[in-house]
Amino acid sequence: MAYVGGGWALLGNHQIWSYSGRCNMYFQVYASSEQDPINNRSTVHTRTRILVENISSSYSDYYVEQDWSAEVTGAPNYSAHATFSDGGAGTSKEYILQNGSFTVNHDSNGNASSKIHYWFNGTYTGAIGSPTNTNVVDISLPKIDRTAYKATISNVGSTYKTMYCTISVPFESVENQWSRDGSNWTTWNKSIKADTPFVDTWTGLNPNTTYTFYYRFKRKYNGVWSEAVSFTATTKYPNAPSKESVSLSSVTSNSAKVSWGGFSLGDMATDYSYQTSNDEKNWTDQGKATSLTISNLKANTNYKFYVRMVDNYGQPSLAASTSFTTLNSEKPNVGGIECTRLTPFGGMFSWYGFSVNEGATIDHYEYSLDDSNWINVGTDTQINLDNLSPETSYTLYVRIIDNFGSKSDSATFSFKTLVDPLKIAYNTNLYQTEILTKDGVDILAKNGDNLIVDTIGKERLRTAKVFYNDNGVIKKIKAAYYNKKGNIQHYKNYGN
Length: 496
What we know:
By secondary structure, the protein is mainly beta.
C-alpha cells in the first residue's frame, strides 16, 4: 500500500520505449493529498506524465510520434497525438498528460484509504510496437486528527447572586455552547485561544440555590465538539438580617413582658419571622409578633431573653437580648401609721409594723397623699408634714418596697388639719405678735399671760372682734391661741 501524504508520491514508473540504451521513455503516475479536517475528508490529486530521458552525452533529437491515451480513476482522461522528444544530450524532458483529483472520506477515527486505477496505451511508428499498461495501486492517506479534548474548570466560586469559574480549553475554538441541563444548548460564539484560561461569570442568580452549568467547545481545526464539562455550586446566603434591641415592659414574680423592634432584612431577602430563646440554643418561632409575655417563671430568679430575625433563606440575625430578675413571690407586710403632733399646716407622723419576707431586704419606704404620687423617704419611719392647708381633710398612705421591687399594701391614716392659725402668742418665734383691727391698727397689749384688746373697753378677748392682715387683705380671726407658761393653748372661748 502506497502512502500518499502532502507531497507528490510516485505510484508507478513504467518504461515504455528505449533506444539502444541511449534514450528511454517512461510513463509515470504521481499522487498527492491534502486534508479537509472540518469535513473529515481528503482530496487526492493525480498526475500522469511521459518522461523522455536522453542518457547520451553526444547525441540528441530522439523522438517518437504517437497517439497516446492515459486514464486515472476519478481524474480527467487524456488522449492526443503528440511527438515526444528529448531535451538534448544528457537531459530529460517531461510531458504532462493528465492532472486530476478526487475526494476520499475518512472514518470517525480519521483513517482513510483508497485505490488508484490507471492505464495507458499508445500507437506509434517504430520497432517497439504499441505499449500498454494498466495497474491498481492501494493508497493510504494521512490520518486526520478527530480529537477535541475536553476543557478543564477550576477556581469555582460564588456570591449570593453570582457564580464564576476559570475555564481552559486545549485548542482554539470560535464556536462553543453552554447549557443549564446538558441537553439544551445555547451558542456562545466566544473566540477562545488554546490553553489560555479565562473567567466566566453568571449573574442574576438566586441566593442559597444550587446551579449546574455545562460547556462544550468545537475545535477550530477539525470542527469536532469536545466532551461537555460542567461545574456545580451553590450561591451563598444573602446578607444576614441586622439586629436591634429588646426592651422590658413589666416584671412580676412569675412573668415578664418583653418587646423588640428595629431589625432589618439583608439584601435580596424578601420575608422574615422572629424567633425567641432563653438559652440562645433552642429557638421558638414567633411569626411577625413584636412582643411576648413570658409566663410560668420562678420567683426571684434571673433570666435572659433572646430575640433574632430569620429571613426567608433561613439565615438568622445576631441575637438581641435583655436580662431581668423576677420579683419575690410574697409581697412585704403592711403596718400602721400614727400621728404624734397635728398642726394647722400638717403634723408629725410615724409608722410601725412593716416588714419584708424571708430572703428579701428593705429597700425603702414611700408615702403619698393621693395614692398615686409617691415620695421615696429611704428607710426613715417618720415624716413631718408642714405645707398642708388648714382645716383640710387628708389621707396619708405609706408602704414598704423590698429589694425585688415588691410593694406592700398601703397603710392609711386620715386626718384634718387644725383651723387657720392666728399665731398671736406673745413673745414667741412660732406665732405672730400682732393683732390688728379691720383697719390694720395694732390692738394688742400684754397683761400677764393673757392677750387683751385695749381699744374696746379692755374687755376680755372672747368679746373682741379681731382682724389680721393677710398679704394686704384684712381677714377676721377664726381662732385664737395664747401662751400659758410656755405652752401654746387654744383659746376656746374666743368669740365670733
